[in-house]
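If you are new to this repository, start here. Below is one unmodified record pulled from the training split, so you can see the exact layout before writing a loader.
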Amino acid sequence: MFQKAFGGCDPSTCATLYKLYVRPILEFAGPVWGPLLARDSALLESVQRRATRIPYGISRPSYGERLSIMKLSTFDERRQRGDLIITYRALHNFFGVDLSSLFKLNLDDRLRGHAYKLRKENFKTQQRQYFITNRVFSVWNSLPSSVVESVSVNAFKNSYDAWIRRE
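And here is the target side for that same chain:
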């Protein structure tokens, strides 16, 4: 349907339309239901892969080149960014409800890095293994203190994006 409606558009317009109409559907409630299996994540990624083909004909650049031309990121990168934003908002009480008890902080003074280091949670089921607190553990703890201790959500997003681009 997307291809029929917007088949003759240029890459930047197609990217804008994709961000406006398709991506919110794919990312709806992402921190809650994150795909457990790699094939589920690949299936969601295939939607973006197909949408990036629309402005090109049969001869088109590779998927990575199309992403850089359209200034898009992969589905897994977007999901990880969304999970980190939720974690930041929960730890800094930017929700209407106190969710800071969802994440257990490691209060050991001997740790390097920032003051918001998370403690690894023990789990017995695969569902709990892929719960947001365990999905973000390693990435969150590897963030520099300048990113984690941002003053607002937008400042966190900007500093996280700058940190990712540097790596």
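Two things worth knowing about this chain: Residues 2-72 form one domain. The first helix runs from residue 2 to 6.
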